[in-house]
Design a protein that fits this description.
There is one protein chain. The chain has about 220 residues and is mainly β. The radius of gyration is 24 Å and the shape is elongated. The longest helix has 18 residues, at about 1-20. The strands form 3 sheets. Strands 1, 2, 5, 6, 9, 11, 12, 14, 15 and 16 form a 10-stranded mixed β-sheet that branches. The N and C termini lie far apart (about 90 Å). About 10% of the residues lie in helices and about 45% in strands. The protein has 2 helices and 16 strands.
Amino acid sequence: MKRYLFFIILLLSVGCSDDQLVAITDGKVFSQLTVRYDKNTNITSATAAFWKGSQSGARLVFNGNATILFQSIAMDYRSDYTYIKEMKDAQTPATFKITDVNKKIFTNTATLNAVDFPFGMNLDTIDTTQPLTIAWNGTALENLEIVTLRIGTGTVRAIQDTMGKTSITFTTSLFSQISSLKNTTSTITLERSKSPVLTDDLGGGGTITSQYVALSRTVYLK
């Protein structure tokens, strides 16, 4: 009899524990997923963040019994309401899979489209009095994609966002904005990115951003 009562109490305690599992996807959740590959470090960094209702809502975290996976590996939670995971090599296609405690499953995948400086192109010295046009190694731009060319570490940059394009130009107007770098050695970087809406959102919409950063070059600006 005592064993029977103990068994009943055990079942009741498990039931109470299950009742306390809160599924944030019982409501609408805005999601922001990002995957970034940096060829300079050969590391892919993935992040995931969530808000109640919309991006202006309260930040959310999942119950500890939920699973947030990137490439089938559990992501790590940070204290800033963000989940992260770093992996070697370019992870493409890159897949996020979320399983909430209410058994709802959400899967979203992004493709990292490569972009690189042309092989054999001499970028040792750049004439800042002339526009610099670079036809990148990689496919033509897809819809919603952007290629960014930056010289130095500031905010001045060239942007190419026209579908089907295969080159980008750093204009003389942009060079005039970084005139303080003239006659110095600087860094030139090339990045490709895309931020479509989620195909399998958590009720409140969101985006999945993919970024590919090419090997940087060191150049002299004359």
